[in-house]
Amino acid sequence: MSSRVRRRRGAQESLLSVVLASESIVVFLGGLVAYGLKALPAGIDDWWGIVAGGALAVVMLATSGLLRHRWAVYLGAVLQVVLALGAFFVPALLIAAAVFGALYVYATIKGGALDERNASLAAQAERNGD
Questions:
Q1: How many domains does the chain have?
Q2: Fewer CB within a 10 Å sphere, N or C end of the chain?
Q3: pLDDT tens across 16-43, in order?
Q4: How far apart (Å, rounded) are the C-alpha atoms in residues 71 and 32?
């Protein structure tokens, strides 16, 4: 049995992960709403709402696990825009996009500031020999 050392996650990564994972539930339910309201344009089967909501939810969950990479943080921001575009079919998604978009921006900024502060405190402790 090997004892694997767990990688330390920063505040930004943790906060963004929580936002994306929570948002994925809302996105999947939004796909169900699009299906139930038959909100898609004529010529597109209603079940595509479930597929689109499910696919976007899976991509958000996958992205939440990859946030240690800078490109995944940007992908998360792009996913916020994709959710906002869903408001063309289900206008209520604009509210979800605004709330989760604001949370994503806050988590990016505040999490980054916390990570910088923690790194500064760790460097200061190292210089002081603590």
A1: 1
A2: N
A3: 999 999 999 999 999 999 999 998 888 9
A4: 29
Q: Is 129 exposed, middle or buried (0-12, 13-18, 19+ CB in 10 A)?
A: exposed
Residue 112 inside a domain? The answer is yes
Q: How far apart are CA 71 and CA 47, in angstroms?
A: 31
d(CA 10, CA 26): 25
Identify whether the C-beta of residue 58 lies closer than 8 Å to the C-beta of residue 82.
no
Range of the domain at 34: 11-127
Whether 2 shows a pLDDT value over 70: the answer reads no
What pLDDT was estimated at residue 130?
Answer: 59
Structure tokens belonging to residue 117: 């502060």
Residue 74 has pLDDT above 70, yes or no: yes
